[in-house]
What we know:
Elements: E1 13-16, H1 26-42, H2 56-61, H3 75-78, E2 84-89, H4 101-112, E3 121-122, H5 127-138, E4 163-166, H6 170-176, H7 191-198, H8 200-208, E5 214-217, E6 228-233, E7 237-242, H9 243-247, E8 250-253, H10 261-271, E9 276-280, H11 284-299, E10 318-322, E11 325-326, H12 342-347, H13 352-362, H14 384-388, E12 393-394
Parallel strand pairs: 1-2, 2-3, 9-10, 11-12
Antiparallel strand pairs: 4-5, 5-8, 6-7
Helix pairs in contact: 1-13, 7-8, 10-11
Amino acid sequence: MAARLGALGAVVIGRFAPTPSGRMHIGNVYAMLGAWLSARAGGPERTSRTGGGAGDADCLNNVNRVDGMSGAADPGDADGGRGRMLLRIEDIDTPRVLPDADRWIMDDLAWLGLDWDGEPVYQSRRLDIYEQALRALQGIDLRDAAAFGGRDGVGGTETTALIYPCFCSRADIRAASAPQEGDRFVMYPGTCRRALAEHPRQVEQRLANGDRHSLRIAMPVAGDVRAAVTVHDRVFGDCRFDLPRDLGDTVVRRADGLFAYQLVVTVDDLLMGVDDIVRGRDLLRSAALQLYIRERLLDAGFGDSSDGGVAAAHRDIRFAHLPLIDNAAGRRLAKRERSLDMGTLRKHGVTAHQVIGYCAWLLGLRQEPEPCAAADLLHGFSWDALAADSQDRSIPDDPFSIGL
Length: 404
């Protein structure tokens, strides 16, 4: 399975999608610079399109419009056909949200010269949309051959519902699963999927009793035509994933009632017309899952265009997953480490051009980490250098030892 193909007659649409859980650090800026360059340099490949002023409700009816644009100018007219860049604040996981972190992020992006089009979109204001998407997925029955991979039915040990309740705790899952080698990904063992197939009345009773549960999306069974997903990545090449073996059934709504990342990011990218995704290598596996969820949403008729035009939902999606940035101890940079965050660097007089130049060097766009503006990197931008050296990067904890 691959992303649905289609509209090459539309401008490239990329996005920043930060979580407002703290101040951005060098690793975040590195990824955002890559996303900005990929979108802004991608525009001339396609014919520009007028964005229009669509809000969340409009996006449910017409995905040719871009969510939250608020009448933003057509980038094709304003900037010679450059791609569009959206800003989405991923604040759906409310326990992680830090007050004012969204403002810090926007201030840092503006300081760095990484602009975006239209008004920021906040996931926390889109709960009704995610609810509608979940209901659309809940309407899919795996026994429906037309709706699920051309199969005439499912085996006796399989649930027939695409979305099913899961009563397992994290401890239950850890005890029954083994982490996947390399990235500590824990595969769900399918306990409640089997329970629903073998003991449906017990499951119904638990639901009637109000037992705490999450909702999971069922992966195709082994041998199904849609079990295999290939992610075409501009850094790591073609990466093939077997959904039931490599990912397993995944939570789409948590037991605490919050919508899960994998669902909301798929819904947002679909409705916002995003077709250029740049992020860290740790989310490469997630790309396969998100393509699968996207296909199921489209199967259910969610997000289809209503005006007879070519829906943005059917575009080919371009991915670039970046090598990760580790600190001197070999651990991935985190927002709790203050030495390389934008607040600390700016306080000590580091310039925006120094930060951009260093991140350009990490992206393989410069031979040395010399100061430069983001716009200086647009001409001739390519992923070739990073694809040739896709090893994770390691940087020292002391920002002044790296020329910042």
